[in-house]
Each structure stands twice: as C-alpha cells, then as structure tokens.
Design brief:
This protein folds into 2 domains: 3-93, no CATH class; 110-288, Nucleotidyltransferase, domain 5. It is 48% helix and 13% strand. It has 12 helices and 5 strands. It has helices at 3-16, 26-34, 46-58, 63-76, 85-93, 125-132, 168-175, 193-201, 221-233, 235-242, 248-261, 270-288; strands spanning 110-120, 138-146, 152-159, 181-186, 205-208. A 5-stranded mixed sheet has the order 3-2-1-4-5, sandwiched between helices. Helix 8 links the parallel strand 4 (181-186) and strand 5 (205-208). The two termini are 17 Å apart.
Length: 290
Amino acid sequence: MDWKDVDERLIRRGGLILDLDFLEDYDKELEAMNRGKEGRPFTLTHSHIRFLAVVRYLFDMPYRQLEGFARALHRLVPRLPSGDYSGLRRRILGLDLAPYEHLREVDEPIAIAVDSTGIKVHRAGGWVERKHGKRNRYVKVHFAVNVETGEVVAMEVTTDDAHDSKALASLLEQSEEHGRVVRLYGDGAYDSSEIYEALASRGIEAVIKPRGSSRPDTPSPARRRVVREYLSLGHDAWAGLKGYGKRWMVETVYYTFKRAFGEHCVARTFRNIVKELVAKATIYNMLVNL
C-alpha cells in the first residue's frame, strides 16, 4: 500500500468541506436559473445549496445552525448570500442528487457485495409511532458495494421489517447500470432458491453462505450445487475457494459510512429520511474517489 497516496487522499477529503470552486461560475449559474423564472428570483445557486448540504450532513447540523454557518460564510465571502433556515431546508430537500455520478468508469465486469444496516430514526417519533405504534424504531439501508473500489453502486431504504432479500432485485438492477455484474457476495439472509435462480438467469455467480439448516436436496439446481459443495468442504475451505472474505467490503463501507455520518438520521419523515441517506451516499462516493 502506498501510504503517501493514502495520506494525500485523506487530506483532499478535508478540502471537500470548503471546496468553493463553484464560485467561478456563480453569476452565470444564477443568471441561467432565473432566466424566464416567474416570481421571486433565486439568490442561491444549486451548487451553493449542494455545498451547504455537504456541510449539514457531514456535521449533523440542524437547519438553524446551518443558517448561522451560511451567515458566517457570507461575511467571509460577500458574494455568497446567507439565506434563512426554512429556505435552506426547502432547497436542500429539493436537491435531485445522483449518488452514482462520482463512480469511476469501468470497462471490466464487477463483483458486488450486498447487505443492510440499521439507521436510528429517534427524531422521527411522530411518523414511526403512526406507522408502527412504537417510537424506538429504525430504517434499513441496503447497499450493493463494488468489492474492488469500495463504491456504493446501488442502494435502497426500507422500514426495519423488510427482509434483506426483498431489496435485492432493485440493487441488482441499479448495479448493472454501472457495469456487468458477474459475482455477488452475500450472507445467509440471501440464501434462498428464488435468489439463486434469479442470479443464475442473469449469469451472476452466487457466493452466498448457506444457512446452517440448508439441505442438499434444495429445489434450485444452482443452490443445490453450492450447498453440497459447502457441506463437503466445510466453511473455511469453501470460503477460501470462493473468496468469500470479499463480502466484508460491504461491512467496511458501513463502518466508514457511520463513522462519517453517524448512526442516525436527522430527518423526521420517511420521504426525507430517504433523501438524507441518498445525499450521504452521494457524499460518501465523492469522498471515496477524491
């Protein structure tokens, strides 16, 4: 590993926080946004709002504090208006972020690892209580991760009662928009005949750890081969042969994601929770590829 390169990438991540490159075309962007607009003109550009969104999500900053940050920034850079917290909230929630726009271009087939993790929504008590009758709930964020680059190439957000396997079809469709998927790593939550057959129909090798109760007479031919091989070799030999250790890349991504953004959402409704997690995934992919 080139530690000098690692150090430089970490330094560049710090620079993302105050990346003011959007100032170069600020006036042109603002003019284009207001051309033909009816009513009150925009004073903050979309790129300015994206910059403030990065600050909000990286520092878990409430909107009123974000207004204070914008005021302080205005004092330092008079060209940048501050805005009020309600307007900043509306503009940030209205951002149409693309979490995959910063992915590296690849020509070769890719292997992905899939899993989910819980995100606390203790600030969304009203929505949770109306839906579930309880306050102590969470949402699940499902990632598909490129095991070679650590990039999030697909994501889904569900309530905590959704099984991991239910999100897989969407994760596969999204992943294949960024490269031909040839291998999928997953834990026992994805060990089902339906998933094996779905992967086989797409020409994707399933490297999924069979559950302890898995039987060699399972209906799916694809799953039957894996279960028999697993029982014959034992876990360690099977894992070494299949490279199952690469599945841990998705666990590493979740660890990094939660270190950067915390283990909870600040939004209060499911719709806004999804927007918040998409924004955080967008920033994560930016950080990975700096």
